[in-house]
Amino acid sequence: MTHKQGSTARDHQPAEMALRAGTPTSPAVWRSVDEFAQTPAFREIVEREFPAGASELAGSSRRDFVKLMGASLALAGAATIPGCRRPDHKILTYSQIVPENIIPGKPLFYATSVPLPGGGAEGLLVETHEGRPTKVEGNPLHPNNRGRCSPQALASPLTIYDPDRLKFPVYDNPAKGKVAASWDDFALWSTEHFAQYAGDGSGLAFLVEPRSTPAWEATKAKVQKRYPNARWVSYLPAGSDAANEGSQIAFGQPMREVFDFGKARVVVALDRDFTEGEAGAIANARGFGASRRVWKSTDSMCRLYAVEPSYSGLGGLADHHVRLAPSQIPAFTVALAKAVLGSLNDAPLRAAVEAITLPDTSAFDSLPTETKGKSFVQLLAEDLLAAEHLGHSLIAVGKTQPAAIHALVHALNAALGNTGSTVRYIEQTGDLAAPVMAGLRSLTSEMASGSIKTIVCVNVNPVFDAPADLGFADAFAKVPARVCLSVGKTETSEASTWALNGAHWLESWSDTVANDGTIAPTQPMIAPLYEPAKNDIELLALLAGDEAPDGFAIVQQAWAKALGMQVVDGGFGKVWKRALRDGFLPDSGGTMSTPKVRTIEVSRALGAMTFAEAPAQGALDVVFTTGSIGDGRDANNAWLQEMPHHMTKVVWDNPVVVSPATARALDLEPDSYEKKRQPHARMATLRVGGRSMELPVWICPGMADNVAVVTLGYGRTTAGVVGDGVGFNTYALRAADQGALVRSGTLARTGKSYPISSTQNHWSLEGRYSLARWLDKPAWETHAAKAEAGPTHGRVEDPFDTSGDDGALSVAEKLGELTHTPANLSLYENPMNEGRGNPVAGSEYSKGLQWGMTIDMASCTGCNACTIACQSENNIPVVGKKEVAKGREMQWIRIDRYFVGDSLDEPDRVINQPLGCTQCENAPCETVCPVTATVHDREGLNVMAYNRCIGTRYCMNNCPYKARRFNFFDWAQTKTNGGLDPSYVPESIRNATDNGGQGSTFNQNLIPPRLLAKLDEVQKMKQNPNVTVRGRGVMEKCTYCLQRINSARAGAKVQGLDTIPDGYFQVACEQACPTESIVFGDILKPDSRVSNTRTSQRSYMLLGFLNVRPRTSHLMRVTNPNPAITAPVDTIAAHGGGHGGDHGDDHGDDTHSAPADDHSGETHSFRVDPRRRLDDDGYALSLNVLGTGVHL
Asked: Were 197 and a residue from 58, 204, 267, 861 both cysteine, which residue would form a disulfide, CB within 3.0 to 4.6 Å?
């Protein structure tokens, strides 16, 4: 929970921002500022079934539309451009010579790996159909992934089939300008050109991305041998040297941590989300997620403290969340060190921290606690020092913090006994140990002075992402020969003499090293689409003198040398084949060490630190971070562009994000939500270190005040049709000598506004306070133990028992409406089920396979891996920024992010709730479809017949979960931001209509589909052939990956199995989830995972009182607060579960006094929902009927 600092933000809220009243034990739950304010426009969008603007086709003036259509009709003829018709399909034979191991219709899976920016790797399995990769999944054998995957890896098929990627080398001929060339042309040119540098290398520079693998190091050695004096510079635009420098101080060499959450009982995250964006993120997410789940009353779980400026995915799971400006975290860490080391035996380090005089620490000293006389920091230290937690805690610090604080955290982990237990270390080697910015700074100076005559840029884009103060682009232009290798178009390739088309990792040989040191091969799934492309090691080998570089041979030779073998040895052949089969080299993990902390050096570094004053309105903390598209390399990936940010839910943009209080103080609050108008952010001028830029400003609750978070990677100009012009290039605000945190920034309103597309108000559901559920661990232990001793929840025995003690209710269900309503038993006999219990014996739902799913909110970080996995598996299209603004996004599974609490500035907690079609047994959508396009099958699935659907959208209107998606246009058939089809529309008309691009002002969806640019053939290669591509006018939704169920059924039949075993296959979202929060299977099998999780005491059904009986159930979160800091609350007792008819005192307030009128001696007491009384006029009016005896 978030801890309040001083006066509450609610004291300063204007009247129009007043929240519906919550109760101490039933706090308000909300998703956005607009919902918090309860504006009339927001209430209207909640109450109507379709998102505001979803049905309107406005977007251009009628005159513009008629003008274009008149020209179009004249061009193509009215009969050839129907507005809405099914596309033509051509049937072609598979006439090529089919390889022996390829069976049409049956996918093959190959193990491979992909390197991560800044080091580390993901071990993957790639699904291929007839030789083309279509889906990326985690390798279940790889130690890092264990079958899980990141959104970026999942979205990579979109990159390999990107029609805007470089297809051939381009040479900037001094006489003719840019001309198409070939790799043979470049080989001839490079042989002659680089011969002048052989044996010396002066005047030659290589600018590369940091990597360190056997093949990379071997190739690098060859380059340096041929060019001994050449400059070799590694560069990571969004990287930070703080972690390497901190470990250098603490241990004498750069090292990185490897965490073991299985042993951790207390975790402290200081401005760090170790589950996302770093080398060990997938392994960390999996381990931490497992440490947070409880199934029985006696299960233990770890406790998480998060101290950060804004909610991260990890911070949303925190038991104690402290919003603190990043410039104040060093002081917090030193204060924590003083409290911890005072009870330990590290005298030199204790003396060093005691000698530090901290500035004003009221920001965290004033945090409220349950223990009088002790501060939050003292109680946190006592928790770390508890006997049962020594050696079982973990402290982690993020890249915004200085090197000395990193060194101090290493020392604290050692002092607490964590080193060697929950924290181990592995040495950073090669380019990963080099500074990320110092080399670029000196290289730029040499280029500007004319010292560099030739530069080779390998998979980097410094013309776009180099710090603005360096003037890299101008210096780069002064270099006579500029060679750039990249897969896609970049600003650097555009400015180069030679722009070389690089091979994608899915079409080339290489190798990787994971966070724990595991070595893995990268093997091609397909030959280069645009032959003969080369990857990084092949280009470097070519320049090192290899006439015909082959990635396969390079990797084999490097591995054989590292293993002390020869490639021709039979033993190496066995090792190699096994590595290709398993996806990694067995027993290749790096040597884990427990280095001794150099206390004197740490003390010296701490003594040299200066501590900043708290930020103010005129001196903001500006934090530079990255989002879904990373440092900009994935800007042309539409899946990642349309992936909502885990907190702001913004897509296709990178606004500056500030707290509500900061926005109010600086007059930067966005326009209120309006039904027919896209949300608009205020534009402001952000000034940082003498540089300025106009940017939109967006509000996010839970942020520290006077902090501005800026996302890098947007504003590309040479990315492609999808990425060009999206967002703002905030690299222009960075300086080479500044890290991820910059002090003394300012924001000043400009008077302009900017349209923002955010999904946070879309698909909003009523009954909010009972949708997202949580319970403190002491209350969980009490109620779970009681449930375990009594009957398990199942069939309702007493349909009128509303006391909350009914054994039919799980612990989680007692937090909802079912404790205050009669049991959901129909007046009519249901042939399939009995109320909330098991299916009727002999009914269809009681036999065979019955599919179901559970989603655990105790471990979901909102990373969106499930969303991208579903999009890749099910051929789900993107719709673009303008269509998302109208509520037309097509993702089948969304993640609803809920804030909890009565304060806009300091919500108590954040809960993520993934939600797709819940496959209701009593599905409301089926009863209203006039053509029975949506029906139930015998295995309990709500299935769609796309060719029956006529697009009435009645089913969408009747879905209580708002899980259905409608194809308003031919998004799956046309190119994202692709404009008009040049084969139909002449250039004059295309130019007149502002053709293409994200910034287009004309609504091109109003144009008949045949005139729009179609998908290139290469783009169609990414589609899953087992899933129908839906056309315009068709409704769609989650199918529980029906194609995978059918494939598993066929596979089980071939193997002679009577049924599909549990775990035989996984659905896409379940397979991808890094924290393993999603479980799918047969709910009738008593020993299946889904059966056990579904019958858990944490399980409940969303909107269960509707009796639609969803097959997807959610698992409530159990929190583990420190009782010395926050007193645990028994929300069930306060909510109404487990009390008598008069409710006693369990509600925790003083509103239960006896009524003045006892109605002839009888005392009546009625519970009133305070939020509903404010929201629902009819409900409030009905309270008059109840008379006296009404209480909250």
From this structure: 204
Per DSSP, the residues of 1102-1145 read: TTGGG----SEEEE-EEE---TTTS----HHHHHTTT--TT-TT
Task: Examine the fold and report which residue of 160, 183, 204 is the final residue of a domain before the chain moves on.
Answer: 160
Residue 839 burial (CB count, 10 A): 21
Claim to verify: residue 725 and residue 699 sit in the same structural domain: yes
**What would the mean pLDDT of 41-65 be, rounded to a whole number?**
52
pLDDT attached to residue 978: 66
Q: How many CA atoms lie within 13 A of 360 on its CB side?
A: 6
Phi, psi of 662 (to 5 degrees): -65, -40
Q: Residues 905, 660: contact at Cβ < 8 Å?
A: yes
pLDDT of 996 reads 46
pLDDT at 98: 57
Q: Is 347 buried (19+), middle (13-18) or exposed (0-12) by CB count in 10 A? A: exposed
Q: What's the pLDDT tens digit per position in 727-785?
A: 999 999 999 888 889 999 999 999 898 999 988 888 877 655 588 899 999 999 999 99
Q: Are strands 423-427 and 255-259 parallel, antiparallel or unpaired?
A: antiparallel
Per the structure, the complete domain to which residue 531 belongs is given by 170-237+436-582
Look up tokens 């237990």; give the residue. Answer: 421
Range from 340-344, 453-457, 751-755, 897-901 that averages highest in pLDDT = 453-457
| Range of lowest pLDDT (275-289, 425-439, 972-986) | 972-986
**Are residues 589 and 517 in contact, defined by beta-carbon separation less than 8 angstroms?**
yes
pLDDT of residue 1077: 95
CATH of the domain at 365: 3.40.228.10
Amino acid residing at 819: T
Query: How many angstroms from the chain centroid is the CA of residue 1093?
Result: 24
Alpha helices by DSSP H, 567-623: 570-582, 599-607
The whole-angstrom separation of Cα 888 and Cα 897 is 18
pLDDT of residue 808: 74
Two tokens, residue 732: 């222009």
* Whole-angstrom distance, CA of residue 716 vs CA of residue 728: 8
Rounded-to-integer distance, Cα 243 and Cα 279, Å: 13
What is the total count of domains within the chain? Answer: 5
In three state form, how does the secondary structure of 745-804 look? EEEEEEEEEEECEECCCCCCCCCHHHCCCEEEHHHHHHHHHHHHHCCCCCCCCCCCCCCC
Mean pLDDT value across residues 364-391: 89
Q: What is the mean pLDDT of residues 236-244?
A: 90
Element (H, E) at 384: helix 376-385
Q: Is residue 62 part of a domain?
A: no
Residue position matching structure tokens 């909010």:
768
Per-residue model confidence (pLDDT) at position 1148: 38
CA gyration radius, the chain: 30
Instruction: Count the residues in the chain.
Output: 1192
Which secondary-structure segment (H or E) carries 699? strand 691-699
Which amino acid does the sequence have at 670? P
Model confidence at 12, pLDDT cuts 50, 70, 90, reads very low
3-class secondary-structure state, position 619: strand
567, HSE (Cβ side, Cα atoms, 13 Å): 8
Instruction: Return the H-helix or E-strand segment holding 338.
Output: helix 329-341
Residues 233 and 248 in one domain: no
Most distant CA pair in the chain, distance: 108
Among 286, 262, 268, 257, which residue's Cα sits nearest to residue 150? 286
Q: Do 640 and 629 touch, CB atoms closer than 8 A?
A: yes
The tokens for 273 are 């989300």
